[in-house]
Amino acid sequence: METPVPLAQLLQALEAGDLTAARTAAAALQRAGAQTSQLAAEVLHELRQPLLGVKAYAQLLAEDGAAPGPLRLLLAQVERMEQIVSDFIRLSSERPASQQRLSLAAPIWAAAKHFSINPDSSRISLEVEAPEDITIQGNARLIEQLTLNLLNNARDAMAGRGRVKVVLTMEGPSPALYVADWGPGIPEELRARIFEPYITANKRGTGLGLSVCQRIAREHHARLELAPQGVIRDVPPPATVFRVLFPATDAPPTQKHRVLVVDDEIIIRMVFRDLMGKECEIIEAASGEEALDLLQQAPVDLIVTDKNLPGMSGLELAQQARRLHTDSRVILMTGYPSLVTTQQALELGVVDYLLKPFDDIREVRALLRSTLARKPAPAPLETDPAMRRVDVLEDNPAAAAQITHALSLVGLEARILTTTELAALEPPAGVVVSWDFTPAYGRKALELGKALAQGAPFVVLAEHLTMETALESLRAGAAACLPKLMSDASALSRELNRAFKREAP
Fold it and tell me: Residue 2 above 50 pLDDT?
């Protein structure tokens, strides 16, 4: 790339040792940079006018009864473009973006959704591992833009079909975001300069995406860099891995979490008091009725209850607690687990199961800490009653046909998906995911189904329904976990209709 004239003059003056000429050239270079930033800001500002027109006419088309799905997506993209313009104008004026404590998973999943909407991404298999309990002080919109730029950069590096993986994890006290691809890799001669503007190994790219990522990372006091290939433990290893390492931040001081422990055995209540009493306010109840009286006085952050209580059972308590406070979180304890009670717990929104006697009390503490660290799951979205699409992750043709028939009996339409490629549309009425889904088996299938549901209920079907399968489904937030081979299609349709809380057609 040709060296800008002011910079060339500065270099020449420095080589000649002419201090006066160097100062003059440096001042000219500074003015040129300011003029370039101002010009960019003005151009971006002018883009707002045509965007406003596009948005206005899209809204008018919606009023005239045009197809709402595509228009909703169009409006979302226009609003996103408006926000990008605002962000770049702000960057050019060097004004800091507002920041707040946020879960990194939310903007990462939002970026994955926007990535999958792009037709160019249909050839890419995208995998996302983003736990919800990793938080930073930052700007969600900018983190989404950073992630999307890294995803687009990975996609554009691959000529044909390819694979991209996003992993959010902790490295010691610091959150770390990895974006890996199995493309051709970055040439050795470009690796040291890859974050400079207009430097790219991709013929389709402008070379600005990574430069923008670097600016966003610096605004969050994070470090963006190329990471070793082996940091992503896959076989074969990825060709390119980018890492964003965020600073370790201490969460602001908060009040102690309130945990209600319900058990008729005093020794169990004492165990929880000694286990968590230093970091939580432990409230005790010997029965479900006593627990309800306490909940009517004030909500708690977590309820840990025995299933077999005298009088009101733990499952009944969970149901009543959810009626009092819709965001109540319940962990159920039992010494007699069964698929029936696990299924009932799923329907009541129980977040986890503790099996008595406890094998390792440290694991119990870890479960309580991780549950309290997560924000309560939002209430399921109220989907459009006219929405009939149910996304089905099933690669077995016979099972897919059975599910399609069962859904049709209650007026729902199956969209069969046989790969892990995200195909985000407007939120479906629900999602059916096979535990035995070959491209993403077990837990990965659950993560994929939950992401695809976008807040709608999702149901897990398993060829061999076990306690492990049901418990994993419960922990993932599934609405139900059912056997694939039910007595007939009518039985399956009734269970699916109940899980999706739809009225019979």
Answer: no
Distance (Å, whole) CA 480 – CA 346? 6
Residue 181: what pLDDT?
Answer: 94
Residue 156: pLDDT band with limits 50, 70, 90: confident
Residues 413, 388: Cα–Cα separation, whole Å: 6
- Determine the Cα–Cα distance for residues 111 and 240; give it in Å rounded to an integer: 19
**480-483, strands of its sheet edge to edge:** 413-417, 389-393, 430-434, 458-462, 480-483
For the whole model, what pTM was predicted?
0.45
CA 346 to chain centre: 22
Residues with Cβ within 8 Å of residue 309, at least 6 apart in sequence: 262, 263, 264, 287, 288, 317
- The span from the CA of 257 to the CA of 301, in Å, is 6
Which residue reads 């909407």 in tokens? 117
**Residue 430, SS3 per DSSP:** strand
Query: CA–CA separation, 257 vs 431, rounded Å?
Result: 33
CA distance 166 to 448: 13
Residue keyed to tokens 């010997």: 286
Q: Which residues contact 77 (CB under 8 A, 6 or more apart)?
A: 117
Q: Tokens 């088309």 map to which residue?
A: 61
What value, to the nearest 5°, has the Cα angle with vertex 29 and ends 24 and 31? 95
Helix or strand holding residue 30 (H, E): helix 19-63
3-state DSSP assignment of residue 1:
coil
How far, in Å, CA of 452 to CA of 113, rounded? Answer: 9
3-class SS letters over 366-422 = HHHHHHHHCCCCCCCCCCCCCCCEEEEECCCHHHHHHHHHHHHCCCCEEEEECCCCC
Pairwise CA distance, residues 408 & 273, whole Å: 51
CA atoms within 13 A on the CB side of 384: 10
Longest dimension (CA), the chain: 93
Q: At what angle do helices 140-156 and 68-92 cross, to 10 degrees?
A: 100
- Phi/psi region, residue 487 (left: phi>0; alpha: psi -120 to 50; beta: rest), is alpha
pLDDT digits (tens, 9 = 90+) for 323-339: 888 888 899 998 776 77
